[in-house]
Write a structure and sequence with these properties.
The chain is α+β, with helices and mostly antiparallel strands. The protein contains 15 helices and twelve strands. It has a six-stranded mixed barrel with strand order 2-3-8-5-7-6, surrounded by four helices. It has a two-stranded antiparallel sheet with strand order 11-12. The longest helix has 39 residues, at 16-54. It is elongated and about 105 Å long. InterPro entries: ABC3_permease_C, Lipoprotein-release_system, MacB_PCD.
Length: 413
Amino acid sequence: MRLILDIALTHIAGRGRQSLVAIIGVAVGVGFSIAMAALMQGGQDDFVEQLIDTMPHVQITDEQRAARRQPAEAAFDVAEISGLRPRDDRRGIINPAAANAWLDAWVPGRFSQSLRTQGVVRYQGREAGASIIGIEPETERAISPIVGDFTQGGFSTLNEGGNNIVMGDRMAGKLGARLGDTVTAVSSSGLTRNFRITGLFHTGTTARDEGEAYMLLKNAQIVSERPNAVNDIRVKLDDPYAARDAAGRIEAELGYKAVSWQEANEAIMQAFVVRNVIMYAVVAAILLVAGFGIFNIVSTITHEKARDIAIMKSLGFSRSDMQRMFVIEGLAIGAAGSVAGWALGFALTYALASITFELDAGGQEMTELPIAWSAAHYAIASLFALGSAAVAGYLPARKAARLNPVDIIRGAT
């Protein structure tokens, strides 16, 4: 085996210029593959991180995935029920205190309960539709994504005494109201109550900044005429990727619909899978092109070294030895190109990571391209390169192994 390796390396060195070109081709393919994978994976990770940070990992509502089985369905073999609805629909999570106690006993993370209701906020003849959310400030601060987005005040101001409310700055601007002004909240049932603005937030998301207002849970229950009602529990887990299992356990125990962040964004997660398939298909295509350079060199060596092959076979080298020798030549070029490609890929990735942008969005903000540094990118690119090199070396090697040494020596080929 050592002799075969020495001969293979001698063949490569004998065509130094062509071998170098092939190595550079593989290196460029591996390097750009690594940089592209780092950029695309970084963008995906950054997007998923934003999803994880801006929404609950598990959201429990007072809905159910399927309608409850009615007594008539149990009594009769054939029963059709449609449009079933209580006369006064006052839905909510039954016994929320027990649900909170159960969650507190095992959930590895934090959670907060709230009451969400639709209403209108009025100020000096102007009004804006709003999602009025009743919260408990102590627990909300631990799970809410807008805690760091307050431009004035915060959730803690809701406990300062009196009826207080915090809202998006765009809603306040639409109403013409400012911090300290008193607005009127009108529930869907028509009940009105005055609240003082004690906080304004700006998330950059129009739906939130124009459409959300927060008040104490007890005040939301009074405004909506739903005493002690809770219709939403949001959970933040220590491990966000355990959300599916946690949601399944919660739904099985409580009976209410529990949606993980993966389920809520299932279409986006599927799009990421498709994008990754496309990315690695492009990587394979790049390295396949580089493999043609290896194929060309090994084929040329096979043609030029035909008499050497005949002599080696006449000295006792087997057909498998010939195949092994030329496959080693292809792999050697692929391995050298992979090592050089690692250096090029690292340099390109580092250059991409150092690019910064200046964005003016309510103030100057510096942001960088999202880059994922992963050894897996280097390993995958190298595997593709070595795979294409092995195939490029095997095809000429099979031809060389089939040569008849007698014909070669007589000059037949």
